[in-house]
Amino acid sequence: MPTISIKSKINEATNLIKNKEIMKAVEKLELIKDQNNPEVYFLLGSLYLNLKKIDLAKKNLQLAASLDSKNPRVFHNLGILKLLENKNDEAKSFFKEVYSKDPNYINSLIELGKIYEDENNFNEAKKYYFLALKIENNNYTVNFRIAKLLHNNYYFKEASEYYKKSIGFIRFKNSKLEII
Predict the structure, then answer these.
(1) Can you tell me the distance from the alpha carbon of 64 to that of 70, in angstroms, rounded to the nearest whole number?
(2) Would the pLDDT of 35 be above 90?
């Protein structure tokens, strides 16, 4: 299949994903599997991951990683996959690999913070949350996670500052809670 055709099919699948037509996107991507195009495998792996089809997600994400070892999105999703398999140490390795490839990939830093928080490792959790905060100071999730971490470790005054910051990103619009 010519490269231009594959790119257009990937774009069609991406539009289906944006329109929340996940199964149609999967069908389209399955038809254009190409051993030389890691984006097809990344998208398929990501979709299967969201559908909780772990074996298919793993197969496609591993293929994507073998074809494009520099793409942090692939390794982030492999980390998420390991979390779903309750393999936190392996997940941490993937998220740290993402950090080494792209230190500004905030989602992996947040995931590392959450893992260390779950392990009651205050210093490591704090380290990764604050690295994430350096990237995006106004991130609701990061501010809230820091507030919760500090609160749970009896740093109430400091926690209140981060709770205030996180609340600043919440508003009500048409009687619905919205994170801005």
Answers:
(1) 10
(2) no
